[in-house]
Amino acid sequence: MNAYSEPAEDALHLVVETFWETFPPFWQHIRAHIRQAATEQFGIGIEQFQILRHIRRGRSSVSELADARSISRPAVSQIVDALVNKGLIVRTPDAHDRRRTRLALTAAGDALLDAVFKDTRRWMMQLFSRLDDEELQELVRGMHSLRKAQPV
To answer: How far apart are the first and last CA of the chain?
Structure first.
């Protein structure tokens, strides 16, 4: 007999229901914290934060950012202007196409993202501190299992 067997359909239904009852609301709670931290502690709006995050991930043109955020290029341009004025990003000419401009984080923009993520990690650790060591280990095992189920 094979060491792996198909899970029972009841177990699969329970996993799916539990997933939908847990992850979206938890993620919304995390996003709300990030939004509040970005606005209150760091003086930027959530869209500005998202643009900074996408630039860090390698999207470096207004059109790439507009596509990633599903918002118009003029809206992204306004956000970019505000971030440039705050000293969080810089515009540089594209080395291969002089008609294009590339966007990059400044040291201040990079530090701001690091601070928001550090604050969020600290806040999440406070949330998870409500669990005992055994529950924390179960949660880690469950997340590892969830990663195995994720499509490649």
So the answer is: 27
Pair 12, 48: CB distance under 8 Å: no
In 3D space, the residue among 99, 94, 87, 12 whose CA is nearest the CA of residue 42 turns out to be 87
pLDDT tens column, 42-82? 899 989 999 999 999 998 899 999 999 999 999 999 999 99
Question: Mind listing the domains of the chain with CATH numbers?
Answer: 41-122 (1.10.10.10)
| Gap between the Cα atoms of 99 and 116, Å rounded | 34
Cα–Cα distance measured from residue 29 to residue 85, given in angstroms and rounded to the nearest whole number: 30
Q: How far is the C-alpha of 65 from the C-alpha of 52, rounded, in Å?
A: 10
> HSE of 63 in the Cβ direction (CA atoms, 13 Å)?
2
Beta bridge partners of 91: 103
Structure-block tokens of residue 78: 């306004």
H helices then E strands: how many in the chain? 6, 2
